[in-house]
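To: structure subgroup
Subject: Chain for Friday's discussion

All,

I'm putting the inputs and outputs inline so they're searchable in the archive.
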Amino acid sequence: MPELALHELRETRARHPEAIAVAGADRVRRPLLPEDGRLMLVAADHPARNAIGVGDDSAAMADRGELLQRLVVALDRPGVDGVLGTADVLEDLLLLGALEGKIAIGSMNRGGLQGASFELDDRFTGYNAATLARMGFEGGKMLCRIDLADAGSLATLEACAGAVTDLAAAGLMAMVEPFMATRVDGQVRNDLTTEAVIRSVGVASALGATSRHTWLKLPVVDGMDRVMAATTLPTLLLGGDRSGPQDETYATWEKALELPGVRGLVVGRTLLYPADHDVAAAVDVAASLVHTGATAQETP
């Protein structure tokens, strides 16, 4: 892991907070899609939703310096196109110079804290479209969990629809991550059956006054061919939490990446906190799956 200048970062935040806006304005930007039309993004918005555990370690993401180190390693690897994160994380990366020539997607609704009674009333406590546009970022991501038995889901749906509309008006990607959900013993559980994911796709695709800038972020489940048949929207695959042998996870991703409409991966904890702690190696495998798997019909 590289040694980061965390002292300087803290000093800049305390003494020169205006440096964040300057770094955003001066950032080297790039087109959203590279030549092969595929994207490999690293996700780091978990702590803002009270979700800092990875595998058996309930506080794996608690150390911000270590998280930033892992992100810098990941973003420096060939084939990694950018990052998804909350304002605090993206601004740290801006000040560290790690977002030059990268895609930056801001995480928007983090109010549905993991384990909270109000978890499914997922308020927009993070980025808004106006700030994302002002910072020169490429888009915004929203989590949209739908529990038909929880009235909080309606507020989330309405807020997501507004965000999709606002992002489209600014010409920015609206990345929608939908799930059908339910409570089991008081805990929210996402329904990962094929039928449930298909239903969530139908709801998410129709959010907002236009879908011209809407992308989907979907879990890899059984029957992904049926899931992808349910939409024409560009789709990124959700890497999910670390579970099972890594080789099996990669094989599952590789198969799903071959489906029409799938444009790449958004992976967080699985790559940033691999079981063997080799972030670079894990990221390299995922990036190779994304960028060597481009099909002729998906290449501009």
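Points worth raising on Friday:
The chain has one domain: 6-27+37-298.
The chain is about 35% helix and 20% strand.

D.
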